[in-house]
TrEMBL record:
WD repeats lie at residues 202-233, 243-284, 285-326, 370-411, 461-494. SMART domains: WD40. Keywords: Coiled coil, Repeat, WD repeat. InterPro entries: ATG16, WD40/YVTN_repeat-like_dom_sf, WD40_repeat_CS, WD40_repeat_dom_sf, WD40_rpt. This is Uncharacterized protein. One of its GO terms (biological process) is autophagosome assembly. The keyword Secreted does not apply. Residues 54-102 form a coiled coil. It comes from Fonticula alba (Slime mold). It comes from the Eukaryota.
């Protein structure tokens, strides 16, 4: 059958093409339908096959275009991600460069610091070596000087004994302690008599009593305690007033020569001066940087002297309360005594077990006494003539120091005598012939310094073994008072 021309079919095809020109797949399908409707049987089969092939090809093309678009979109996303990663990488490189620069700077600083530390350690080692060598030389020189002075003193004593030869006999040497000559009177007997009669016990403080000091006229005494107070009592132990110190406990207490003032040192780095008649603060001495271990008045009442754990000794003006003299010791200063009325010469006891002499006018160290005690020195007491010093130590001994010979001339100890407080101070009787010290065994030991190194009296409490940390001997010779760990006062009368 021949193909038949059908104008209506052509117009329909054109119309459909205009309608579906935007969609090639639909156009292909419609074209195939028109061809089939307007063609012969053989042409219809041929056109159908071509149309299906065309549709299939177009579908594949559309799938490829969709895939291509997806690939393009993925590529755009990948490019954006790559750009972001590139920026991040650049930022990381910048941060890494800064970190490396900082590490290099820190490494250089650390290297410099190590070198400086090595140089510092080397300097310190050289300094310590030099210090040890100088200390050894200084100690050797001090020992040599002490030996020379001792030999000189012995030579002078020998010459004096030779000068006093009479009728082929040598006069008896003077007693080794005091140059003070006492008359055989009722007063001299009272001053040399040991109060051995236990009188009473009275409560004084809430905690242990570290120090006791009589006024110079003997009518009052003061006590200092770890309850942070200083208390005044009459001679009969009747309370007069309580003077609050601070938040820290009292280490030492003393009266001025005219008994007008009371001074106390404490662990809060301050020494305080009160008026004894009113209890009002007169001065607060505040220049120390450590515990103030001791506080004393000069005998002319013009100066006060303090010693501290900060390794310094200070001399204060009583009128202004200002520090006039600062002396730097070699170690912590536990106690100090004045070697004259105006405090121009001082003797201090250090934590290195040594004694040092100081000139307050030149601020210079004058002399040293070594190898007297084997443990910490807790307190000192000066004899009335300034020629001897009595010391107490944690080694459970008392030593009598001859300041002219720069040496210990007597040792006092007892089997039951124990010194456990860092602030226990020994005392001498008013005439200087007896020494006394409190003991942790609850007793007061008394030695005759002229005749024996063994105790001549042991004062005990009838119904108590309360450890005793402090004691005082009345300048009138009438009583000894001891302060206990429990805060009570124990009194012995002659």
């Amino acid at each position: 059958m021949s193909d038949t021309f059908n104008p209506s079919s052509i117009r329909e095809a054109l119309k459909l093409r205009n309608e579906i020109q935007c969609d090639p797949f639909l156009y292909a399908m419609k074209s195939a339908e028109l061809s089939l409707s307007s063609s012969s049987k053989s042409n219809q089969d041929k056109h159908a096959r071509h149309s299906y092939e065309l549709v299939d090809a177009l579908l594949r093309v559309r799938d490829l275009e969709i895939s291509l678009e997806a690939v393009r979109e993925e590529s755009r996303l990948q490019l954006a991600e790559n750009e972001k990663l590139k920026n991040d990488y650049h930022d990381i490189n910048m941060a890494l460069s800064k970190t490396r620069a900082q590490i290099n700077m820190l490494t250089e600083d650390l290297t410099s610091e190590r070198l400086e530390n090595q140089r510092r350690v080397t300097r310190e080692q050289l300094f310590e070596k030099s210090h040890r060598e100088l200390s050894q030389k200084w100690l050797a020189a001090c020992n040599e000087l002490a030996a020379v002075r001792s030999a000189s003193t012995n030579y002078v004593s020998e010459e004096e004994r030779r000068a006093f030869k009479t009728d082929g006999a040598i006069s008896e040497p003077k007693p080794p302690l005091m140059s003070l000559q006492l008359l055989d009177t009722e007063l001299s007997r009272a001053l040399s008599t040991v109060p051995t009669h236990y009188s009473k016990s009275v409560p004084a403080h809430r905690h242990e009593i570290n120090c006791i000091q009589f006024s110079h006229n003997g009518h009052r005494f003061a006590t200092g305690s770890t309850d942070n107070t200083v208390s005044l009592f009459t001679e009969s132990a009747s309370p007069v007033r309580v003077m609050q110190s601070s938040r820290s406990f009292i280490t030492d207490v003393n009266f001025s020569k005219d008994d007008e003032f009371v001074i106390a040192s404490s662990t809060d780095m301050i020494a305080r001066i009160w008026r004894a008649d009113t209890g009002r603060i007169f001065h607060q001495l505040t220049r120390h940087s450590g515990t103030v271990c001791a506080a004393k008045f000069s005998m002319d009442s013009q100066r006060a002297v303090t010693a501290s754990a900060d390794r310094s000794i200070r001399v204060w003006d009583m009128q202004t309360g200002y520090s006039q003299v600062v002396i730097l010791a070699y170690s912590m200063v536990n106690d100090v005594v004045l070697m004259d009325d105006s405090a121009t010469t001082l003797l201090s006891a250090q934590s290195d077990h040594s004694f040092s002499f100081w000139d307050t006018r030149s601020h210079r160290h004058v002399n040293t006494i070594l190898n007297v005690h084997t443990q910490n020195i807790s307190g000192l007491y000066i004899s009335p003539d300034y020629q001897y010093v009595l010391s107490a130590s944690r080694d459970n001994t008392l030593k009598l120091i001859d300041v002219r010979k720069l040496a210990s001339v007597a040792t006092f100890k007892a089997p039951d005598y124990r010194s456990t407080s860092s602030y226990t101070r020994p005392i001498l009787s008013p005439d200087g012939s007896k020494a006394a010290a409190p003991s942790a065994s609850g007793k007061v030991f008394v030695w005759d310094v002229l005749n024996s190194n063994e105790p001549c009296n042991i004062l005990s409490m009838p119904d108590s073994s309360d450890p005793l940390f402090s004691n005082g001997w009345s300048p009138l010779g009438s009583q000894i008072i001891a302060g206990s760990k429990s805060g009570r006062l124990h009194i012995w009368h002659a």
